[in-house]
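SEQUENCE-TO-STRUCTURE ENTRY
===========================

Backbone structure tokens: a row of integers, each naming the local backbone shape at its residue.

Task: work out the structure tokens from the sequence, keeping to the layout shown below.
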Amino acid sequence: MGEEFLAQENNQGLLGGEVEVNVHIERVTDTYELTATLTGTVTVACTRCGTPAPVSVETQEYLLVKLGAEYQEESAEELIIPRGDARLDLTEILYEWVVLSLPITKGHAVGSCPPEWESLFRAHAAADPSEQQTPDPRWAQLLTQTQEQNHQEE
């Protein structure tokens, strides 16, 4: 998938990129098991500064395709296509897999935005320390409990 493909439906914030797609298809009677591996880099608008930023994509997805009477999406992993039109366009599905593989906060690592933005962030943070909110103590308690559980699991 190249720049044009990834930027075509820009409602998800993809500005372009290059993602290699490998699809393995295994047929069992009227069922097709698709396993897709997607690896590459996409360009997104950084959540913090809005400038273009590269984000790595690495995901493996599974789709079960069955032949039936009419088109029907059984679930995110199961699809029925009409027996008479046994062709499947993976364009939208591949695009969705790329988008769903991205982190919620997309873009540069904290401190890695362009210098003019970083200086604005620092100036805003230092402008009025009274605006800085103290963390809610419930979050601190939850963090402590989570860390304790992680240590117990190790």
Notes: Residues 48 and 110 are 9 Å apart (CA to CA). Residues 137-153 form the longest helix (17 residues).
